[in-house]
Amino acid sequence: KNAFLQFLDYCTGQKDCPEIFRRPPQIDFEKGDRKSLRKIVSGLYQAQSGQPEESGGLAETENEEKEAAAIILLDKILEEGRAKNATDIHIEKNTVRFRICGRLENQMQLIPERAAELIQRIKLLSGINVIEKRKSQDGHFVYGKNNPVFIRVSTMAVIGNAFETCESVVMRLLDTKRIPLQLENLGFNSLQLDKLDFLCGLKNGLLLISGATGAGKSTTAASMLLEILKRKSGVKIISLEDPPEYIIPGISQVQLDSRE
Fold this sequence. Notes:
By secondary structure, the chain is α+β, with helices and mostly antiparallel strands. It has helices at about 1-10, 20, 35-45, 60-85, 110-125, 190-200, 215-230, and strands at about 90, 95-100, 105-110, 135-145, 150-160, 165-175, 240, 250-255.
């Protein structure tokens, strides 16, 4: 420490040392909390009219600061999504949207460069290739410690402005502690429930459940497994999933990994 101070005195004592470096450094502190920090970072990341673009190369410290800011921004987006009971979070180009009650609602507009940093952070957490931008990829990660949520991530390439390739990212929020609902609570009519009741009573066969994203395929399958388990005592059920979305008591759930 003393050697550093001596070196600093030597440098500032030189005739050609700029005046600005002769002044002692000053650091100003302001009171705040994590919530206010997220708000400030989110404001820096959101697009504003007339904002000049950054120029020149970024230093290593600037990259570290932007990475830290991307972490805080993702944390803010996920917390807002959970608070609003969003089932999916969509990030396409520089727009962030939440799917709430089946409808997509715009939440914020990001600076394009910052949106790319946010997507890179999501891909890193999901364990997928951060360099690959042209092929579709799938991954997942767990967010939160006290009340964790399982997040499935899907990325795909889309055409942006001037026919440039950019990425579309969808994050599905799944409560890690949730248990599937009863079949009668899924919104089926009496005729459909009778059909499902018949299928749950079959001794063998193959049952295919198909539908669009978010239509309820996994929820229906999990509810049927729970119903079968109630009817047939003393049986062992093994579920192969990629990845598991529900925790079903009494069923051996195995997560598949296509990379192994």
